[in-house]
Each structure stands twice: as structure tokens, then as C-alpha cells.
Amino acid sequence: GAVVSQHPSWVICKSGTSVKIECRSLDFQATTMFWYRQFPKQSLMLMATSNEGSKATYEQGVEKDKFLINHASLTLSTLTVTSAHPEDSSFYICSATGTWDIQYFGAGTRLSVL
Amino acid sequence: GEDVEQSLFLSVREGDSSVINCTYTDSSSTYLYWYKQEPGAGLQLLTYIFSNMDMKQDQRLTVLLNKKDKHLSLRIADTQTGDSAIYFCAEAEQAGTALIFGKGTTLSVSS
Fold it and tell me: Which residues pair with A105 in a beta bridge?
């Protein structure tokens, strides 16, 4: 149990295009999901907290118009990187809060912007 | 702000025990976690401990928590080459809130 699926696992896109990343809790409902970003050989940095049915809460320094988050259901949150640029290339990981409020992570999405 | 510190590297021989240490600054941390990340993969929850516990053991894994010193450790008994990965310590002040991660400890296991 407590499986979080993230899709796609790897995406390459051209500069200026938008990319959507999905995060699904497969066997539990999650009112709260989190989006993290990880640079090579570095730790995870929280980008935003995604709440079902309401607006996401963004961390300081994260552009909400660039990183659009939608949490339309109790099992799905999406992160859309709009007008992607090479500096947005990174590893994006989502997590969902399950039983006992334990956070379970997706496998991550590697975004490469050319 | 809250901070989580870990040593960056640990190298052990197969069959030995590994001990990865972590310190945190937030005295109100309630939940403390250990995650494992293999190259190019997401984070796998290894174990967690609540602040009202001192120790938790789960098969080869033993977590020790010293709240006074704000020190958390993960011991892996009989370390195997498959244990080679990056281990992240993380803490949360409240249930269901975002985690604050350390920089990760790279564990290298040689045969």
C-alpha cells in the first residue's frame, strides 16, 4: 500500500514549451501533496504544497505563474512548468501524505529543457 | 530556520555495520524520517520515528533518537552492496507538513 505514481519519469522538451507532470496516489486518498525539486547531488527543496480543492501554497522564491499546480481530486496533483527554459532542468519529485501522515514519494520526473 | 545536517559520505565493507548520523535544529520536530535514494530514482521510505520514541528497530535497520542532543542515527546491520545509495534524514514539525531534508549521506559499500 501507499504507492505514489509519478508520470512521466523523464521528459525532454524545447525551450518555451510547457510540460505537465502528474502525481497520483494509487491506493489512498491524499488531501495534501507536496512538490519538491532536486538539483544534481543536492537535497530536496520544497517548491509548493498542493491542497485538494484550493490554491497551492508556494515557497518563497518559487514563481507560481511558472510552476502551476492543480490538485483537482484526492488522488491527483499536477505540476505544469510553463514556458520552460534550460534553468528549469531538474529532478522534480512529488509526495503524498498517507496513513499516520507519513509522506510517500513518487519516483520523480527528470526534466531536460533544450 | 530549521536545519538538518548530515555527513556527506560513508564507506564500509560488505558485512559491516553502517551508521549514518543526522542532527537537526528544530526542537519541536515531531516526525523524523530516513529515506533511501538510488541513482536516478525517487525516495524510498526506510523508516521513521516519532519524537516520543528513543529507538526503533526494523529488521536490519535501527534508528536511535537523542532528543536532548537533537541527534538521529540510522544503523544498517550486515551492510550489503545493494545498500549503496544516498540516505536522507528528514524532519517535520507536525503531521502532514512538508519535510525538511538534510543534504544526504552517500553510502558506498565495497565487497
Answer: A95
Q: Which of A43, A49, A107 sits opposite B98 (nearest CB)?
A: A49
CB-CB under 8 Å, B43 with A93 = yes
Cell digits of residue A39: 538539483
In this structure, which amino acid lies at residue B26? D
CA A10 → CA A19, A106, A107, distances in Å? 11, 13, 10
pLDDT > 80? residue B2: no
- Which of A35, A43, A104 is best to mutate for the B interface (most B CBs within 10 A)? A43
All 3 cell numbers of residue A110?
Answer: 527528470
Q: For the segment B7-30, what is each residue's pLDDT rounded down to a tens digit?
A: 999 999 999 999 999 999 887 878
Give the pLDDT confidence of B79-88 residue by residue, as tens digits.
999 999 999 9
Residue A61 φ/ψ region, left for φ over 0, alpha for ψ in the -120 to 50 degree band, beta for the rest: left
Sheet holding B18-24: strands in order across? B4-6, B18-24, B71-76, B61-66, B55-58
Closest CA to B81 of B7, B21, B19, B12: B12
pLDDT digits (tens, 9 = 90+) for A28-70: 988 899 999 998 878 899 999 998 888 899 999 999 999 999 9
Burial of A14 from C-beta contacts in 10 A (0-12 / 13-18 / 19+): exposed
Distance (Å) of CA B56 to CA A97, B64, B66, B92, B100 = 21, 7, 12, 18, 21
